[in-house]
Design goal:
Layout (H helix, E strand, L loop, with lengths): L8 E6 L1 H9 L4 H8 L5 E2 L4 H9 L17 E2 L11 E3 L1 H12 L3 H7 L2 H6 L11 H23 L3 E6 L1
Antiparallel strand pairs: 1-2, 1-5, 3-4, 4-5
Amino acid sequence: MISRMSMNGNYLPVTEEDLNKLLDDPDLLSDFLYEEKEEEIIEIDKAWHAIHYTLNERKWEGIEPLFNVVLGGEQISEEDIGYGPARSLLPKQVSEVSNALTKIEEKDFRAKFNSEELIKHDIYPQLWDDNIETLDYVSTFYNDVRSAFIKASDQKMAMILFLN
């Protein structure tokens, strides 16, 4: 199984008003994420890159809206908040992602998942096994991401994405 140290994917649904405050004053970002909203962050451990690859069939590229699921969004500031800057998606983009993910249920995601491709393309964290535990691990976090986007879209929320 995959250890819990290193680069973890994170999502934080926020109101457009809160996002605009952060865009207006990016110096507030770290405190907002790690103090004010820490309990609301949705963490997907190291599954982020496997989710991206499975949805986009590319290591770092993709086409919106599926690209926006993991690696998309506009940089909020230059601040490195773990592993690079945090990025944001506006409510319209969250809705587009939600609509795309609504069409990819867990069974569809599992059918697209290919651990051999993850290994071949050196997908982080480069510890993939060709077994059901690996598929279950990534699928569980895919469901968390899918649910987060659907719920955020229903509430007309923006989304902050970051690695730490």
